[in-house]
From TrEMBL:
Entry keyword set: Cell membrane, Cell projection, Chemotaxis, Cilium, Flagellar rotation, Flagellum, Membrane
Membrane-topology descriptor: Peripheral membrane protein
GO cellular component, one term: bacterial-type flagellum basal body
Stated name of the protein: Flagellar motor switch protein FliN
Family matches, as Gene3D superfamilies: SpoA-like (2.30.330.10)
Protein's organism: Arsenicitalea aurantiaca
InterPro entries: FliN-like_C, FliN/MopA/SpaO, FliN_T3SS_HrcQb, SpoA-like_sf
Length: 77
């Protein structure tokens, strides 16, 4: 089991997504807002090595921002 300690996993948490033309992106200034395809109550998507593995929600504890896993997504091989 000690060999598992050496394996690195890239974790990504996605709040939502948006599509917009590059010229709109280039014209955005500081403080610009990009509307995402999710609402405030929608779950976050949690990826491990670009594979969706769970859903979660934002948590703030002791002034620190974090993500709590609310649902693990099981994959059958």
């Amino acid at each position: 089991m000690n060999s598992l300690n050496e394996i690195e996993v890239d974790i990504t948490v996605e709040l939502g997504a948006a599509s917009l033309p590059i010229h709109h992106l280039l014209r955005m200034g500081r403080g610009a807002v990009i509307e995402l395809d999710t609402t405030q109550g929608d779950p976050l998507r949690i990826f491990a090595n670009k594979t969706l593995v769970a859903h979660g929600e934002v948590r703030v504890e002791h002034g620190q921002l974090g993500v709590a896993v609310t649902e693990k997504l099981l994959r059958t091989v």
